[in-house]
Amino acid sequence: MAMTAERIALGTSAVHVSRVGLGLHAIGNLPPGSEGLAHDLIRRALEAGIDLFDTAPEYGQGAAERRLGEVIDAVGRPEIVISSKVGYLIRPIRRGPLVRRILREGLTNGPAGYRHLWREGRRMSRSALARIGAGRVPGSVADGPRRADGLRLGGLVDWSPDGIRRSVEDSLERLGVDHIDLILMHDPEMHVREATTGAYRALVQLREEGTVSAIGIGINHVDAAIRISTAVDLDAVLIAGRYTLLDQSAAMTLFPLAQRRRVTILAAGVFNSGILADPRAAPFYDYARAGRRTRARAAAMEAICLRYGVPLRTAALRFTAAHPAVGSVILGAGSMAHLEDDLAALERPIPGALWRDLMGAGLLPEDSVAPAD
């Protein structure tokens, strides 16, 4: 049975999704005029049996949701399960000094920029960081044409109950639907208190009203994911980059907790920002240029994979998808070639000896869950 044909339930909700999903970050960031390609990528995923589409207001400043909505308008809703996010409102903003600094330092990827500023707090004043946490600074600034009034669209952090409701209402409008299957709180690691109190209560109310069917979080940090998953009842946790060939940290603590609490794991970021897709052409790890040791480890993995005629990206995708705690693995593709490669990788047999060699070389833990072909 093809992996894309399998279906699983999201937590204890009535929502069922394919074991493979398509993330729309890259599709949202395709330039204006690429709507045809965006639509073709979504339609190709549907043809392959994928019905879970993960989007967010910040992906292309609303473009990902609009492009998905255009396909829904053409093919109908029953075939598509929508996952979107809250925590950011897309609003016109002015380029003040702090926004210009975010742009100048390349911190335009919204949550990734926040994480960078959080780790490197000395780069900005305490007051600037406080304003970001309070939601008074845009998380990202679109690089598209400036509007006639001189403003650009940007993501504004807003974790208030009213902000959560406005975010869902905006997404419904962009998608052209009257309900969303799964809503994830987007990058809540800096907003754990809000995510477990007012924001969560707002989503529960929206679920009771029938606007939302399932609730979860989309996050990169295992510790914060555990704190939130322990404090409130979730249907799903989308964890990005924390169960890959290079990082299995989610498997040690988050996965067992999720299984005990009947929370479905959606695994994204399987290529760790690119290095596991191509260690030479895309040597980026966790939103930054990979360090020397990380590049060397990825190169050593690739050398073993190529001895068996298996691309590293294929092994990376199959490894993440194989863990029994992973309900669905989220692909990400901005080109038809990448999507076709990933779809083929899901069905490609991989010799068991490849995994044994990776473990024998100390590149994977001895107790790793290897795909069974």
Give the helix/strand layout:
Layout: E1 7-9, E2 16-18, E3 20-23, H1 25-28, H2 35-47, E4 52-54, H3 63-75, E5 81-86, E6 88-93, H4 97-104, H5 111-119, H6 126-133, E7 138-141, E8 152-157, H7 161-175, E9 180-186, H8 192-195, H9 198-209, E10 212-219, H10 222-231, E11 236-240, H11 249-252, H12 254-260, E12 264-268, E13 284-285, E14 288-289, H13 292-307, H14 312-322, E15 326-332, H15 336-347, H16 352-360
Parallel strand pairs: 3-4, 3-15, 4-5, 5-9, 9-10, 10-11, 11-12, 12-15
Antiparallel strand pairs: 1-2, 6-8, 7-8, 13-14
Describe the structure.
The chain has 373 residues and is an alpha/beta fold. The protein is built from 16 helices and 15 strands. The protein has helices spanning 25-28, 35-47, 63-75, 97-104, 111-119, 126-133, 161-175, 192-195, 198-209, 222-231, 249-252, 254-260, 292-307, 312-322, 336-347, 352-360; strands at residues 7-9, 16-18, 20-23, 52-54, 81-86, 88-93, 138-141, 152-157, 180-186, 212-219, 236-240, 264-268, 284-285, 288-289, 326-332. The strands form four sheets. An eight-stranded parallel β-barrel has the order 3-4-5-9-10-11-12-15, surrounded by six helices. A three-stranded antiparallel beta sheet has the order 6-8-7. α2 packs across α3 (63-75). It is globular, with a radius of gyration of 20 Å. 48% of the residues are buried. Residues 106-147 have low confidence and may be disordered.
Key traits:
373 residues, alpha/beta, TIM Barrel, 2 domains, three-stranded antiparallel β-sheet, 16 helices, 15 strands, 19% strand, globular
